[in-house]
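Standup, Tuesday
Yesterday: got the pipeline producing structure tokens again.
Today: sanity-check two examples.
Blockers: none.

Example 1:
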Amino acid sequence: MSLFKDPRDQDPREPELPRWIFLHALRVTIGRTSVWAVAASLIALLAFAQALPWLGWFDRAIGAAYAPGELLVELEENFRFDLRASRAALDASTQSAGGALALLAMLIGAFSAGGWLQVFLERTEGESVRKFFYGGARFFLRFVRVLVVTLLVLQLLRWVLHGRPWEWLVLEKLCGLSKPDMELFESEQHARTVDLAQTFLHALGFALVMAWADFTRTRLAVHGTRSAVWAGLCTAGAMCLHPVRMLRPLALLLAIEVLALTLAAALLAQLEGSLGADSSAWTLVAFVTTSLGVHIARTIVRGARYSACVLATRDVVRPLSRPDPWKRSVGGPGGPRYPIDGDEYAVSM
């Protein structure tokens, strides 16, 4: 029996697939206000922890030696020179802490993925935050394994596009260079074209690996399995057989995220250009508000990716032969499930 679903095999008890999956995913995710607020706060706390030492250092360094707003636009040369030693020491210490915080951010991402999937797969109303934390804990170890596999795949991608395979196949065989040295190209335009192609392929490969990781996590949650490697192989096969149906919603969500980042960057550039010694507090409030707005928007899009992955996975992948635990039901996280069958409720033992 095929692992992939024929569109004609739609279960009549399942809700019909939305026409525009990415719009449905955005609408559903925006409606989960408490969930995206918690998910955004987890990462914002890490950013605050990284920024706090710098805030304390600037407060001690500036003190009463400068007029209010004097260093708002840029740090003057004397300030940089006089405090270069303490600033270098703080920079070294925060870089070390930054590595640990980056690892913690990836682990929080794995936890949040389990929370989002628990919320979307249960399809019940109420107690969303409780289900978010329950799902995060439930799938955490499985999704950490997916994270490790993803990092290995990304490292392989980097080696292929920036290591010996690229040098041998592209630079030596296709471009005819005697050795893999970009300076041997006859014109600078040829070197820029090759470099642009390498950058584009790396960006495309990175996006595909991230999509594959999201679908792998979704497959593990939908089927309730534990093997990250097997789920990843099955997901890769499904993406090869159904690239449009699986990747189109994520591509549209990525376009929305890029648009939001572009608009925010333009607004921040305007605000930065208006900074000066006479700038009001409202300018700084606008800076903070815009930055937080971008972070919240990216968190919502991240949640919408998992909602879209759930819909796309159920559209193309056959369920396992055992009963689907995610059929429409009610019940608290971790407790008994009560399937809904018309107006009657039956206890699932």
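Example 2:
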Amino acid sequence: MANAATAPTSRRKGVLIAAAVLLAAAAAVAAVLVLTTRDPADNTPRAHAVRACADATRFEAAVKSNAKIDVVDKHLNRARAEAHKAEVGNSLYVGLASGMEALRVAIDRNDGQAARVGIDVVRTECGYVKRG
């Protein structure tokens, strides 16, 4: 009698495990499809510049809210990386990348003048990006 009672429970566990494995496999396939079918427009210099400006906005908000340096650095480093990709693709974005570098110098050297220059340049360049 004990075997008859545990057999359905054991079978249910097997079905649940198989379902979990299939679900994980489906999620992995979906992730690969999403990553490989990304819109080519996402890799244009302008798209990189737009993302750089979005990260610059997050950076500025983190600085204003006195966030931890790790958070501030994360946003600035992402902004710099996106600005660099934009600059490599189109020299129109050299100013944006330079402004990001000025902000990096400002943080690394605690340089107020570099911060003012970087902020002004990034705001100006992001204004062009938003309009363009």
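Quick observation on example 2: The first helix runs from residue 2 to 36. The radius of gyration is 24 Å.
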